[in-house]
Amino acid sequence: MMPGVNHCAGGPGTDTWDKVQVLDQWRTTGKAPSEVVASHVTDGTPDKTRPLCAYPKVATYKGSGDTNAAANFTCK
User: Longest Cα pair distance anywhere in the chain, in angstroms?
Assistant: First the structure.
């Protein structure tokens, strides 16, 4: 599930990521991803990123840094 995303895409959530690359890596390595970094795009330009965490974990802000950057979140 992608927080803040409408039914399949859109909304304020991060819904843009390279699905084929992630699935190919999973198939190649046999290891499911624990997180995927996704972007929210406005007018063709990414304006924020977030990790999409494997259930039941959720992206949690580390407490400092830009809240629009995935690097400042962790899956807990």
Answer: 36
